[in-house]
Amino acid sequence: MRRILTGVITAAALGLSVAAAKAEPFEIVHTTWVGYGPLYLAQDLGYFKEEGVEVKLTTIEEKTLQMAAMMSGQAAGALGTVDEFLLYMNKDVCLKYVFALDESAGGDGIIVSKGIDKLEDLKGKQVAFNEGSVSQFWFNVVLKNHGMKQEDIEMVNMTPDDAAAALMAGRVPAAVTWEPHLTEARGTAGSKVLIDSSTTPGVITDVMAVQCSTAEKRADDIKAIIRAWNRAVDYWKANPDKANAIMAKGVGGWLADPAVFGDSVKGVKFFDKATNTAYFGTSDKPGSLYGIVQYAIDIWGGLKRLQVSPKPADIITNAYLAQ
Hints:
alpha/beta, D-Maltodextrin-Binding Protein, domain 2, 3-stranded antiparallel beta sheet, 37% helix
C-alpha cells in the first residue's frame, strides 16, 4: 500500500489539539513504501543515535491521519510526494520541505490492454486511477507532455490496487498504478506498461515535510536525521543485499520479503547528499524541485483541489542540507 489521499481533514476534526508542544522523540509518519527503507536502515545501524537524535518511525497509511498527527504535534514530520502536501495546505498550515528521500524511476506507470500503443489511443477511453493522489498528478503531467488533458479521457476513480485488478480483469482498458502491478502487467499476456515514471525524472519524489515551527525549533534534529539518512544511503550502495534485508524487515507489510523489497527497490532512486543538494538548489539558483512544485501547483490548482496557491520558495528550504 502506498500514497493514497482520501480528502482534507483537520486535526480539530479528529479531536486533536493543534497547540501541542514539541514532540520527543522526533516522530516521522509515513506509508508503507520501499523508498523509505534507508530510514529503517539508519535506525538499525544506530546512525540516528550516533548523530544525536532519537527517531520514531510510525506507519500510517491514510494521508489525512498523517497530517492530523503532524498538525497536532503528535508527529514532528511526515513523508510523502512533492505534490500531495499541497492538497493539505491552507492559511493556517505552514509547511517546509527539508530533504528528499527517493524518486520513482519506473515504479509508477500506466498499464494498458492490447490495442493501445500510444498515449493518444486513450482519448475517449476509461482510465482508472486514484483521484486526488500522486497517480492523478503524475498522469496529468504525462498528459500535458503529450499535448493532452484529463478531459480527453474518462476518469474511473479507483485505488491503485483496484485499478490494476480492473485492468487485468478487462473492466477498463487502462490504469495508473505502481509496483508490483507493473511487473505483473509485463508478465501477463494481453497487457503491458505503456509509460512509466522513468520518463519523468524528479516528478514523483518523496520529501519530508515539517511544520514551519518545527523547522525552526528542531533544526538540529532535522540536520541529524539528514546526516543519518545520507550515511544509510551510502551503506546501501556498498552493501545492497544486506541493506535490503534490513530495510525489508523494518518497512514490513507487503515489502517484508527481502526478495520483494529487492525487486521493488529497482524502481526507485534513493537521494544522497549530492542529489539532494542539486535537487533543492538555492533561492538564487533553484534546483528542479522548484519547477516540480510549480508544476504541482498548476495541475492541482487547475483541478480546483488547492485551498491556497503558495510559491515554491515559500515551501522549499535547503537550510538543512549543507552540513
